[in-house]
UniProtKB/TrEMBL annotation, chain A:
<keyword id="KW-0472">Membrane</keyword>
<feature type="transmembrane region" description="Helical">
    <location>
        <begin position="128"/>
        <end position="161"/>
    </location>
</feature>
<dbReference type="GO" id="GO:0022857">
    <property type="term" value="F:transmembrane transporter activity"/>
</dbReference>
<protein>
    <submittedName>
        <fullName>Sodium-dependent dicarboxylate transporter SdcS</fullName>
    </submittedName>
</protein>
<feature type="transmembrane region" description="Helical">
    <location>
        <begin position="455"/>
        <end position="475"/>
    </location>
</feature>
<keyword id="KW-1133">Transmembrane helix</keyword>
<dbReference type="InterPro" id="IPR001898">
    <property type="entry name" value="SLC13A/DASS"/>
</dbReference>
<feature type="transmembrane region" description="Helical">
    <location>
        <begin position="226"/>
        <end position="248"/>
    </location>
</feature>
<feature type="transmembrane region" description="Helical">
    <location>
        <begin position="90"/>
        <end position="108"/>
    </location>
</feature>
Automatic annotation (TrEMBL), chain B:
<dbReference type="InterPro" id="IPR006016">
    <property type="entry name" value="UspA"/>
</dbReference>
<feature type="domain" description="UspA">
    <location>
        <begin position="9"/>
        <end position="187"/>
    </location>
</feature>
<protein>
    <submittedName>
        <fullName>Universal stress protein family protein</fullName>
    </submittedName>
</protein>
<dbReference type="Pfam" id="PF00582">
    <property type="entry name" value="Usp"/>
</dbReference>
Length: 480, 312
């Protein structure tokens, strides 16, 4: 028998779920607004519900994904086989494969060698180490995914922090500098290449779905290749990296300017691990092969296929066990991304995305932000706001159909709008949950949520300026 | 049940909310010295969200951190608390214990317990837990540990104005509303001064007296009884409540040092008079959890500048 206390506790814990149901029920009882079909309205009701549940998490996230699937069958009346088919796209295969690769790479214990390499290059100056950490983190995260790098670099930074001093205050001063060097470098680097994060793969899929027609050569530019994405986005990351370091240096000052003794202890500790072994070389070669596959063959076979191939190679060579992949990957999140993308497609097909886009444009028009650079700035602000309330992948999945429809309606360049959305989804500098790297470094227990706010606005301002400048000056130069 | 069983207290102290919890350790040790209390130090870490970490479990990063020989968050705070207990002589300086892993919420890299024995034979345990909601986790752990008292630190400066309007209810007050046992909302909780028991002419107030007596036989601090009459007309009832409480406590073996009867706003009067005491004790309200904030005991716990125990 459940006691009244248990029931009250259950209701309290699930309050956001019940509130979401109530909001959805109220919306469904209302007639669809002018310009929206009945189906489009139902998709919007589902999107509103899913977004609230993404942010508040009253029920397990895989359950949100399953509700989206059920909603498509029962509310929209779609055939269940069609819904099932809409769930699996190349971007979902890519998310699955890259997460498996992330776990496989972390399990190789390459981080200790990486630590040695960083301190060998930077010496013992605190700020030089911080810059070195962000450069290494950024360069790696741009290719292998930010969660991989954050997980590998976290113990490197924590070791240096704990070896440097026993004073809690000084430890925290070092921690904010080093941990933000990892998380922000990973976040901004994640946009550098398509393999940097799920959001890029999702945007590539949306661009193809919305604009690409195999028999129309004029649309082939919307099938963005690995190399083209790098050409558009990598310089933006490279410009931001040193600016980020300057901002962190200015925001989080530390009295410990030299970490000589800590570096010596770290060298002694991790040096005992010895040189790279054959196993490490095989892992590095496998990853480089995967990277080469992405650059050379993803246009033909899809990024997802290459990512899965890479993961399979790690399994076949015995470098990682399936048990490790199975427990290290959150499969519910993969399902969630699949459902969110599927819902995004329904937003487009039912005209719901066009209606929301129209509302958005009506709101922007009085400020002159419904075209050109103004529109890009507005999309950037909207994405930055959304990405700070939910994960950046989910933000792109939710916003993608809307912003691309806006681009279509305003006759703006959809590629530029799509790239701005994907890139600004990295500007999740204000909250812990914005990017995977931030969540991982926050898990160390050294950071406070207010630290993110303290430095976040500076980072966001810098990133806005760099991205707007790039979209105005750099992209036209390269024909985007 | 022997007299020793009756005295033995089980105290759960929440670590991690701020310096107030560390200060309350001295107080808990005082209880331990006379009643050989079992003390559990609890740190609750939020559960990691798979979506926030982009689909890779944060556990992978945590396992990597453990592989480097580094400590998980929470262990540092628990060890700091343990060091204070070593200083106070409750744990032998060289005592070494292994962390025992447990999986209450299914996080293999998150939940640990380490037990020590104190000089009188009580158990001191350091507990690391993961949970989505700290209030629920503390309430659950209090039940699992069969705690008599939960001590949770609160900010010495109560929130006021707009900040109070837009902020969540402080954790200490949430735990006070939800825990099954008595809760001390700790602010500078140091042993040394007398304790003040607030009583009313109600069944709920009378029902708390056996617990109060048991508590005072454990800590052996002098106690004062305070009964506040909202108006002059209520004075007789307030006097009756105070006298009755003194009699019941006396029969249970606890003799009060003084009896105070005042007229005025109960919350303000208790806070003003109670400021000179180490701890103010008041009985739990019968209101449901969402309305407890409007009861005298919870209002006192919210507004007082020193520690308040809500007795259940």
């Amino acid at each position: 028998m459940y006691s009244a206390r248990t029931v009250i506790h259950f209701l309290r814990e699930k309050r956001w779920f019940f509130l979401t149901l109530a909001i959805q029920a109220a919306m469904l009882l209302l007639p669809p607004p002018e310009g929206v079909t009945q189906e489009g309205w139902r998709v919007l009701v589902m999107t509103v519900g899913a977004t609230i549940l993404f942010i508040t998490e009253p029920i397990p996230l895989p359950a949100v994904a399953l509700l989206i699937i059920l909603g498509q069958v029962f509310l929209l009346g779609l055939d269940s086989s069609l819904v099932a088919k809409s769930l699996m796209k190349d971007s979902v295969l890519f998310i699955m494969g890259s997460l498996m690769l992330a776990v496989a790479l972390v399990k190789q214990k390459l981080d200790k060698r990486l630590a040695l390499l960083i301190i060998k290059v930077t010496g013992s100056s605190t700020y030089a180490i911080a810059f070195g950490i962000s450069v290494f983190s950024g360069l790696l995260a741009s290719f292998i995914g930010e969660h991989t790098v954050a997980a590998m670099m976290l113990p490197v930074a924590l070791s240096l922090i704990q070896l440097a001093t026993d004073d809690a205050k000084q430890q925290r001063a070092l921690a904010v500098l080093f941990l933000f060097s990892i998380s922000y470098a990973c976040a901004m680097a994640g946009i550098g290449t398509p393999s940097g994060g799920a959001r890029n793969a999702i945007m590539i899929d949306y661009l193809r779905d919305f604009f690409y027609a195999p028999d129309d050569p004029a649309t082939h530019g919307y099938s963005v290749s690995y190399l083209h994405w790098m050409i558009y986005a990598y310089p933006i990351f490279l410009i931001q990296l040193p600016l980020m370091h300057l901002i962190l240096r200015r925001t989080f000052k530390t009295d410990l300017r030299d970490l000589g003794p800590a570096v010596a202890k770290l060298r002694e500790q991790v040096g005992s691990e010895g040189a790279l072994t054959g196993r490490h070389y095989v892992a590095i070669v496998l990853f480089l092969l995967t990277l080469a596959g992405w650059v050379g063959f993803s246009s033909k076979y899809g990024m997802g296929t290459i990512a899965i191939l890479g993961a399979v190679l790690f399994l076949v060579t015995g470098l990682v066990r399936w048990q490790d992949l199975n427990s290290g990957v959150n499969w519910g999140v993969v399902l969630l991304y699949a459902a969110a993308i599927s819902l995004g497609v329904q937003m487009r097909d039912t005209g719901a995305a066009a209606w929301v886009a129209g509302m958005f444009m009506d709101g922007l028009a009085p400020f002159g932000l419904n075209t050109g650079l103004g529109l890009l700035a507005a999309v950037m602000l909207l994405t930055t706001f959304i990405t700070n309330t939910m994960s950046n992948g989910a933000a792109v999945a939710v916003l993608g159909p809307i912003v691309l429809t806006i681009a279509l309606a305003t006759e703006s360049n959809p590629l530029a709008v799509g790239m701005v959305t994907a890139i600004s989804s990295a500007f999740a500098y204000f909250t812990v949950i914005g990017t995977p790297a931030s969540t991982i470094v926050y898990s160390s227990g050294y950071l406070r949520p207010t630290d993110f706010m303290k430095v976040g606005w500076r980072m966001a301002l810098m990133s806005f300026i760099v991205l707007l400048t790039a979209s105005k000056l750099y992209w036209p130069l390269i024909g985007l | 049940m022997t007299s020793d069983d009756k005295l033995n207290m089980r105290i759960l102290i929440c670590i991690g909310g701020g310096p107030e919890a560390y200060a309350s350790l001295r107080y808990a040790v005082r209880l331990s010295k006379t009643a050989c209390a079992d003390i559990a130090l609890l740190y609750v870490r939020p559960l990691d969200s798979g979506l926030n970490s982009g689909g890779m479990e944060v556990r992978v990063a945590r396992e990597n951190v453990l592989d480097w020989g580094l400590e998980l968050p929470g262990l540092r705070q628990l060890k700091a608390a343990r060091d204070i207990l070593v200083e106070l002589g409750e744990i032998e300086p060289g005592a070494k214990r292994e962390w025992k892993h447990s999986e209450i919420k299914g996080d293999p890299a998150g939940e640990y317990i380490r037990d020590y024995e104190n000089p009188c034979g009580g158990i001191i345990s350091l507990r690391l837990r993961t949970a989505k909601d700290v209030t629920t986790a503390v309430s659950d752990e209090a039940k699992r540990f069969k705690a008599d008292v939960v001590i949770v630190g609160a900010s010495p400066e109560p929130m006021t104005g707009l900040r109070k309007l837009f902020s969540r209810k402080p954790l200490a007050l949430q735990i006070a509303a939800h825990a099954h046992c008595s809760v001390i909302v700790a602010r500078n909780l140091e042993p040394g001064r007398n304790h003040l028991v607030c009583v009313q002419d109600t069944d709920q107030s009378r029902a708390m007296l056996p617990m109060v007596s048991r508590y005072f036989q454990s800590c052996r601090y002098p106690l004062s009884i305070l009964s506040v009459a909202p108006t002059e007309a209520d004075l007789a009832s307030a006097r009756k409540a105070a006298q009755e409480a003194a009699q019941i406590l006396g029969e249970l073996g606890t003799t009060p040092a003084e009896i105070l009867v005042e007229v005025g706003d109960p919350v303000e009067t208790i806070i003003t008079i109670g400021y000179d005491f180490s701890l103010i004790l008041a009985s739990e309200s019968l209101k449901p959890w969402f309305a407890k904030g409007f009861s005298v005991s919870h209002e006192v716990a919210e507004k007082a500048r020193n520690s308040v125990m809500i007795v259940k």
